[in-house]
Amino acid sequence: MNHASDHIPVVVTLQVPAKVMAASALDFGTVITGATASANLAVSNPAVPPADELDYSFSAPPGFTAPAGPFQAIAGAFSNNHTIGMSTAGAGDLSGTLIVATDDPDSASKPVLLSGRVLRHAAPSLDSLASVPSGNLDLGYHTSGQFPDSSVRVHNLGYDAQQARLSVSSGVITGGGGRFSIVGGFTSALIAGTGKTYDVHFDDSGAAQDSTYEATLTFKSDDEALPGSHAAPDLVVNLRARPLSEATGVGDVHPAALRLYPAHPNPLSGETWLGFDLPGRAPVSLEIFDLSGRRVSSLASGVREAGRYQTSWRPLDASGGRIAGGLYFARLSVPGRTLVERLVVLP
């Protein structure tokens, strides 16, 4: 016993702590309202076995979602994949910080930056200032060879950085005996803040004189190709043209009703033509007004005999300077009646 040890063996087991590994940022990209927007976040424990298991949970910022947890990641094992979601209920730029709360002593609160953009749906319209899903394009009444091409313009109403672009995929004309066509043929367009103009032509060769030709131009469009994109409502334009016989000048027509014809071309950047039918002798005024109600120009004034009349207008002020682009109104007035047509002056 003199040589016996009085030491008791002691065994101490030390376990390496867990480590957290995850991306520092997730970008959800750009989507359209109503889309499903999600991104994958991989969380792993890169500590060398037999290191401790990683315990963790998520705390998502406003506008984003994360699974409730808690979760565990085994040291040296494959990553755990988690779906992080982004709200697409409204348009806007979203950002925030997802917190991964862990038992990693070196990173108890792992931040993950989240970001994404949600756009409103595109808004097709025939007008740049108001929602106009349908309209009329009257190419007028002319003798053979005198029909000018007239324009129709497609807009993405209210476009800004938080609205999807409008993809115009087709423009089809039906009816009219095949006499109406888009000059140069239809070309697709991706419309942001500037509208796309399509010129319409009427072929009067061999057309029945003193007959009215009518057709329909239908534009189909969608949101640009992003998650959440869907088809937009059609835009419909009613086309009209009336070839006159050589012996029947504009002043020889005897209309049955008062009518103000749409300007052509419209929208316009230079000269446009307006016409009106007067069924009986009467005092007439044809004037142009801006949105504030201010009179910009007087095109006709005084007593006129019954007939069909045409006049031109250029978007100029009294001093000969060009007026600002925007929405204007042509107003035809006779005793007891007033007719109004819109005109869009291009910038």
TrEMBL record:
UniProt xrefs under Pfam families: FlgD_ig
Chain ranges of the FlgD/Vpr Ig-like domain: 272-329
Matches recorded under InterPro entries: FlgD/Vpr_Ig-like
Protein name: Choice-of-anchor D domain-containing protein
